[in-house]
Design goal:
Blueprint lengths: L13 H20 L6 H28 L3 H22 L2 H13 L6 H17 L5 H31 L1 E4 L10 H7 E4 L2 E7 L2 H10 L3 H12 L5 H18 L5 H6 L7 H29 L9 H13 L3 H4 L5 H16 L1 E6 L9 E7 L2 E11 L9 E4 L4 E2 L5 E2 L1 E9 L12 H18 L21 H7 L5 H7 L11 H10 L4 H18 L7 H14 L15 H4 L9 H17 L7 H11 L7 H9 L6 H6 L4
Parallel strand pairs: 6-10
Antiparallel strand pairs: 1-3, 2-3, 4-5, 5-6, 7-10, 8-9
Length: about 650
Amino acid sequence: MSKFLPFRCNLETFIDDLKSKTQTNLTQVEKLLTQEDKTFANFVKPLELQEEELEHFFTPLSHLNAVNNSEQTQKVYTEALPIITEYSTQLSQNLDIYNAFKTIQQKEAETLNYEQKRVIKLNIQNFELSGAHLDTKTKARLQEINIRKSELANQFSQNLLDATNAYEYIITDEKDVEGLPESEKESAKLEKEGQIKYKFTLQMPSYIAYMTYGPNRAIREELYRAYVSRAPQNAAIIDELLELRQEMSELLGFQNYAEYSLASKMAKSTDSVLNFLNSLLDNSIEQAKKELTQLQNIAPQELKIHDAAYYSEILKKEQYAIDEEEYRPYFEQRNVVNGMFDFLEKLFGISFKAVNEKLWHEKAYAYDVYEKENLKARVYFDLEARKSKRSGAWMHNWQSHATNEKGEVQLASAFVVCNFPPSSDSQPSLLRHDDVVTLFHETGHTIHHILSEVKENEVSGVNGVEWDAVEYPSQFLENFAYEPKVLKLFAKHHTTGEIIPDVMIEKLVKSKNFLSAMGMLRQLEFSLFDFKLHTKAYKEEQVQELLDTLREKTALIKPPRYNKFQNGFAHIFAGGYAAGYYSYKWAEVLSADTFYAVADEGIFNSKTAQKYLEIILHNGGAKSMQELYIELMGREADTKQLLRLNGIK
């Protein structure tokens, strides 16, 4: 059980294999339920392990569908979703399993360890949030809702990917690419019939490049319009999803989906979330207005939303004499990855060793991870943008650190996926500093999962961690991407090998909080929109009206009417962040507080960093993050540190 799984996914037989595995599992559940004397060892543990094995089988398909999307992966994934959802719903609503968990919780209260108690507590909570205790008719309706919700989320995501891939803008006039960095021009260049043209798309590296450096205002507006009006058919999906979420919440005894969502989070009430977000808004708005005035002052005409990134870049150069393009030769992708490994070794004593394994794409690669020379985990990196890959960046956990019934250890594994500028035979993948921050962020999630020492897989790594705490380790790590002594580990010129000069680091650090209050307002707009949207049943135009109302306070530059941001808000309509987007800010309070504790101790010899490894990373979801945090810091989190981190006075 100790070795890593080979990455395999047979699309031809997947559906039949999935049906067979789920049926075998259900038969095994019936067998376990016939036992007279049910215990953690003979009932809970086998259930945990069979769910883990099903996860091992299903994850390669969902991963492939996200990183090598094709008609075949779409077809198989779409067919698999109702099967896995129906299976999960059947289990999560099984009253006999629910009652068995409650009996074991009472009977073994004195003998279970804290990991086992947490597994039982979370399972009972999940059963109650799935309606296991409700009547047959209600359970059947909840099952229908769950299957439909998963189909809609998948369709939302696919519509967005298709719309992103369908669009391209061809530039024939060289004047329209003047001022673009050479690397961006090279990436966009097309040579046809002796004529040089430039192609820009809605893929993130391409879109950001033109919005930041593109001199033609009309083209910027055209790209912006295409980006914010993608996938209009998702509006109907949003309406149906919101209706289903509201109905589900009411069937489970909650007033709305926001209340349902908070039942398993750190935040205890809808008021506490809204007060938290509004407090950040009130603290940030005056500084944001001053930042906007600075931006407006350098624009020759009224600043429109599609001008913001372009003039921000000009203002940044003016204020800090910083040109992001000058930095990219120092952030060659592999150098950054290897330097980040050096940093993690110095901070936590973990090391990475390359693995020669054939993977799903030639640009993907794998590393084994060691802690104190013990093999601990495997991590797969797939970092470059391509047409078949979903946009954005994420960590996807695969295996979880655990022990089986015989006490044999299973090691953890995870995928790190980003969309960085692609490398070619003539050009390496040179990152923006923002990309470096993204890589650190996703690696923060990854080490949270893989360094777990928990024996029960359901609370190992990121499993069992409250959703509004799950961003804490990722945000904690990303803060180090601005630290001079960390940057010097990997910021080396890709042709000369020269380490980044101190003066460039100084500019980067000073510019870190450039327009940070405006950035804060943008994140608060997303968070408030998501949370309020789930406090009652909004329909059709009401969704846009809610967003418009919030924007009166949060959007200092008024977005045009064609901006249908919500149709692309995959985090809440196709990911797990519904009524939980606020989690980014909630967790940022924990991460800022911990980061300053480590930074103030000098980083590499930090006692807090060692405690963080032992308390937060080794414990995964085996205890509530509230409990672990107080164990780490000896107190509640200090919210002022978040404002300090963002340079907001």
